[in-house]
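[SOLVED] Need 3D model of a two-part complex

Original post:
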Amino acid sequence: MSKSYRDGLPISPKNFVDQLMRLKRGSIGRRDFLGLTGLGIATAVMAREIGIMPTPAFAAESLGDRMSIATWPNYHDPATFENFKKDTGVAVEVNVFGSNEEMLAKLQAGASGWSLFVPTNYTISTYKKLGIIEPLEMAKLPNFDGSQQDPRFTGEGTIDAVTYAVPKNWGTTGFAVNTKKLTKPMTSWKEFWDTAMAEGDSRTMVHDYQLTTIGNALKYYGYSFNSLKQDELAKAEELLLKVKPHLFAVSSDYQPGMRAGDAWMTMCWTNDGAQLHRDIPEIAYVLGKEGGEIWTDFYAIPKDAPNKPAGYALLNYLMNPQVAVKEHLANGAPSTDARVNKLLPKEVLDNPILYPAADLLTPLEFGAAATLTDPGRAELMARFKSA
Amino acid sequence: MRGNRFRHNLTTAMLLGPATAWLVVFLVLPFIAIAVFSVGERAPEGGYQAAFTFAQYANLPARAAAFWNTMVLAPIGALACLLVAYPVAYYLALRAPQRWRLILLALVVIPFWTSLLMRTYAWMYILGGRGIPALLSYIGFEDIRLINTPGAVLLGIVYGYLPLMILPIYVSLERLDRRLLEASADLGATPLSTFLGVTLKLSLPGVMTGFSLVMILLLGEYLIPTLLGGGKVFFIGNALVDLFLQSRNWPFGSAIAITLVLVSVVVLIAANRISTRVSGARRVDLI
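Solution:
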C-alpha cells in the first residue's frame, strides 16, 4: 500500500499521542468523561481552531463557524475536517464514543450539541421512534446518489420510504488473532471460545458490549446472533460465565492490548482488524464461519441539532466520492457506494479483511433494534461482568 | 442595637446565599430528580418512564456482587493508601529540612494538575507488555504480566489517591506540639512507645479524615478498575455507568445511586464515631 495511505491513518502512534494531548487540553466535561468507560479512550475532543472566513460558495446560508459531530474512535481522516474548515470556515469538534447506547443515552438526555452523528443500522428505528432524528432533506445532499448504493447495506436508513440516515460504511464483527502466539488456524466462533479457555488463556479479550459479546457466544451453539429466546440465552450465559475467569479483559478498547502483545486474541470490528493487520502483519482477522454480525454505520442529523446548515454541509461534503475515498483509506472500513469503490486502489478492494469472500458474508446477520434494547440481554451482560 | 443585629443577619444571609444556591441547584435538585427516577420504570427503548413503584429497589440484589466488590475494594484501597501515605506525611512534617518542605509538598500535589484519566492511561502503558514487563524480560524474567491484575488496580488506586491521604495526615502532624515528644522522651519512653502513644494518637484525626475521604471516593470509583483491571471486576461505579450509558435503565441506576449515597453516609458516620472514640472524645472534622 502506498505511503500516503499509511500517513493518513489516524491511529499512527504520533497521531494517537496528539489525540491524547488534545483530550488533555480540551475541557472535558464530567459526562464526556463518563463516556470514557465504554471504550477506554473514547471522547477525545479534537478541538479545532475557529475559522472566521466563510467561502462565497456557502454564503447563501450561514453555516456559523463551528459544529460538533459524534462518531467512533479512529474513524475519520483528520484531514477531512481540516479541509472542510478551509472550504467553509466551519470548525468541526469531534466527539468520540464507545457504543451506540452511549450515543443514544446522550441524545435521549437532550442538548447533545451535535449537528451530525454516526449511528449503526440497528439504532435508527429506535431514534425515529423516540423522535430524536428527522427525515433528511435530500435536496441539501446533492452529492448523495442512492442509485449507487448497495441496497444490502442501506435499507435500515429508510423507514416507510422516508430517508432518515445515509450510509457511511459497512463492516463485520469477527476476531483478531496474533498468529505468532496462537499458531493453530482458526475459522469459527467455536474455536474462538474454546481457544480462550485453552491456549489463549488469560490472553483473550471480548467486547464490553452486550450485542456482540452475547451474540458471538450464541454463535458457539449456532443460534442466531440476535436471539432473545430464554433457553438459548441461558446457554450463552453458561458459556460466558465459564470463559470469564480465562479472559484477559472485557473491553472494547482492544487495540492497545493487542499492539503491546499482552492480548493474543480479541473480538474485533473490520476497521480495527485492518489497522492492526496493517501495522502488525501477524495479526489476522477471522470471520466465524457460523456467522456473526454485519453492520452499516450511517450519518444522521439530530432533531435538536444546534447548527443544521453546517450538519448538512458536512454530510454533503462527506458524500463526495473524492472525500469519501480518503475516509475509507484512513479508517479501513469498506464502502457502500459504488462510486467510491471505483476510486479505491486495487489492494484495498482485494483485502479480504475489508471485502471478505461472499460465502463468509452470507451467514452474517445485521444486529436488530430489539437485540440492543432488550433488558434481558442487558442483565445477562451485567451478570457476566460481575461474575 | 436592633438595627445592628438585623444588619448582621442580612450580611450573614448574603454571604451564605451563593453557596446555598449552589448546593440547591447542583446537589439538592439533582438528588430529588434521582429519587423521583428511582421509583419510576424503564421505558421500552430505555430511559425513564413515570411510575410509582419500589420494583427498582426490590431488584437491588441483582447488583449484590458489585456492591460486595466495592465494599471490599474501598477499605482495602484506603488502607493501602494509608500505609504508603503515613511515612511520607511523617517525613514531610517532622523530619524534612524546613527549606525543602514546601518543594516536597508541591511535588506531592503537582500530579493532581493532570487529569486522573491521563495518569491512569499512562499506567496502562507502563504496566503493559511494552513497559515494565519488557524491561524485566531484558534482565531475564520472562512472561511477567502486570496489567489487568488486582495488583495493578491497587497500584492505580494508591497512586491516584495518595495526595488526598498525605495532606490531612501532614496537617495533623504539622500541628503536633514538639514539646510533647520531648516530654515523652524525658519521662523514659522509647521512641516506639512515644510514636504509638503520642505521635500516632495525636495524628489520628488526620488519618481518619484521609481514610474517609479516600474511601468515599473509592465507593464511586470505576475508571481505575476498568483501565488497569481490564473491566473484569465489576464495581458499583461500573454498574452505574452501564445502567445509565449502556442498558439505559435509568430508574434502576437511580435506585442504586440512592443506595450508594445512603451507604456512604452510614460509612461516614461510622468512621466519625470510631475515630471520636479512639482519639479520645475529640471531634473529627471531615474537610
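Edit: DSSP finds 20 helices and twelve strands in chain A.
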